[in-house]
Amino acid sequence: MNDNIDEIISRMTAKDSAVLCREVMSIKDTMDVLRSKWTVEVLTAILYGDTRFKDIQQAVHGVSEKVLTERLRQMVDDRLIERHECYGYPPRVEYRETEHGKRLFAIVYQMTEWGQEHRRLLI
């Protein structure tokens, strides 16, 4: 693992400052998405199969209907999930993850692993 980290650091230090500034802006964009309350929890619920509004609300403890509605709209706008209207009786709406959302979830999972390692190191 240290070889991989050393390789990453070597590649970073070989770049000029303008390129590094753009990459730092990209990190900020990623953190802005993750910083939005409930995003990770909602994305996790959808990835695990809770695709309807009420199912997501039950899976994400503590989120209100209003906030969940806002978060789902924002996640659709961010292209993390897709909203599908299912016609029939009664009509219903389902949410599905996009490839873009799956890639974010992979990053979140890596952060989970790092966080667990960090906690073990501190304890």
Description:
It contains six helices and two strands. The chain is mainly α. Strands 1-2 form a two-stranded antiparallel sheet. α3 (39-47) packs across α4 (53-59) and α3 crosses α6 (99-122). The longest helix has 24 residues, at 99-122. It is elongated, with a radius of gyration of 18 Å.
Largest sheet: 2 strands, antiparallel
Number of helices: 6
Average of per-residue pLDDT values: 89
> What structural class results from the helix and strand content?
mainly alpha
Which regions are unreliable across 5 or more consecutive residues at pLDDT < 50? none
| Strand fraction | 5-15%
- Overall strand count: 2
- What is the element string, with H for helices and E for strands? HHHHHEEH
Instruction: Name the quaternary structure.
Output: single chain
Helical fraction: 55-70%
